[in-house]
Amino acid sequence: MSESEQATAEQPLKVALLGCGVVGSSVARMLTQHSDDLAARVGRPLELIGIAVRRAGKDRSDLPVDPALFTTDAESIITEADIVIEVIGGIEPARTLIELAMKSGASVVSANKALLAEAGPALYAAAAEHGVDLYYEAAVAGAIPILRPIRESLAGDDIRKVLGIVNGTTNYVLDKMDSTGMGFAEAVEQAQALGYAEADPTADVEGFDAAAKAAILASLAFHTRVSSDQVYREGITEVSAADVQAAREMDCVVKLLAICERTEVVGSDGTLAPGVSVRVHPAMIPRSHPLGGVRDAFNAVFVEAEAAGELMFYGKGAGGDPTASAVLGDVVAVARHRVGGGRGPGESAYADLPVLEMGQALTRYHISLDVADRPGVLAQVATSFAEHGVSIETVRQQIIAADPDGPDAESRETSANLIVVTHTAPDAALAATVQALAALDTVRDVVSVMRVEGA
């Protein structure tokens, strides 16, 4: 090695860190504590030149970094950096700062799912224009390596479907409702007490967080562009004890699933064309399915590919250290590109596939009905399904004893619980069927309605 090459090898790559919250502080700590190993893996040292924060004077004595590194002037460290790590979250000022970093010639590592789901294509274009990298493994499922396997390892395969438990808060809540009989509100409070849920858990329990991640997964898996506002979203706030019990009786469990799948759409000329369905909603899934055993606040992503078959990725989906692990993995990758020359893969959106409306998506329903125990009721129910083009897979009936001391004639009449599981049908047809069933005078209560996946 010549003297000039030796000097270059010893020259550090300058790293700017934007944000020092739970994830940012873990990133700063790991960059400092593992500096020698990281330098050996990259081929050059990584020098943390600054940490942009809102309050530079805040006590951060627990971090093993020089207090002089903290600054409120993010732009001053961005323009001097080779690599910029963005962990501040949100749309702005994150987007403006990332675009400045790229314009300044820095590669970017981000954990910002909301921004990437909304403005990913524009950021990819900026990265390509300025010849830099944009990596974001930590944006989906924390420590679980899923984006790079989809983006790179499976680039030669045809991914058919991605099923994911990508929000730890909701998985914890649903797991407690299933395993302990805990109510929704109590389970959320426990998740908050353990630090799994924010004081305002809306983004988690209403599915916004999972929808942003689903958009990113679908875009990468199917080589198209999907934004978070194209993802059908339904949270877990309406999941009841009856739903959980109905799933248990089917040897299933309720999970909030991010579902991304290749499908077909009917074009304006009536012909079928390729499309994608991207949705987030609660669903029953068999306990025997790999996702059925994901407990507590863990995440998992299940991929179905033509050649590779079924693949499962499992681990911690949130938290400072797990997320920082994914961030630093990306930092090493982009740093190696800096040392060796070249860039990682950019956006692959050549397919330009339409995203189905939820009503067009093919789903299955599990429906629990309390009905009058009279002749012809089952025929009425079956007719409602047939009129909407929905085929029944199974029907199970259980008699509910009458209450001779009931307050009205209906309660003193024997009734039955009907459990109906459908074949696959358009979601709009299934929803219309449920409405029609609820209107029948022989149907006393629609106890539970839940989509079914993985069975």
UniProtKB/TrEMBL annotation:
NCBIfam families: PRK06349.1. It comes from Pedococcus bigeumensis. It is an enzyme of class 1 (oxidoreductase). Its EC number is 1.1.1.3. One of its GO terms (molecular function) is homoserine dehydrogenase activity. NADPH binds at residue 113. The keyword Transmembrane does not apply. Residues 366-451 form the ACT domain. The active site is at residue 213. Keywords: Amino-acid biosynthesis, Methionine biosynthesis, NADP, Oxidoreductase, Sodium, Threonine biosynthesis. Pathway: Amino-acid biosynthesis; L-methionine biosynthesis via de novo pathway; L-homoserine from L-aspartate: step 3/3; Amino-acid biosynthesis; L-threonine biosynthesis; L-threonine from L-aspartate: step 3/5. Its cofactor is a metal cation. NADP(+) binds at residues 18-25. It comes from the Bacteria. This is Homoserine dehydrogenase. The keyword Transport does not apply. One of its GO terms (biological process) is methionine biosynthetic process. L-homoserine binds at residue 198. Belongs to the homoserine dehydrogenase family. Catalyzes the conversion of L-aspartate-beta-semialdehyde (L-Asa) to L-homoserine (L-Hse), the third step in the biosynthesis of threonine and methionine from aspartate. PANTHER family: HOMOSERINE DEHYDROGENASE (PTHR43331). It catalyses: L-homoserine + NAD(+) = L-aspartate 4-semialdehyde + NADH + H(+); L-homoserine + NADP(+) = L-aspartate 4-semialdehyde + NADPH + H(+).
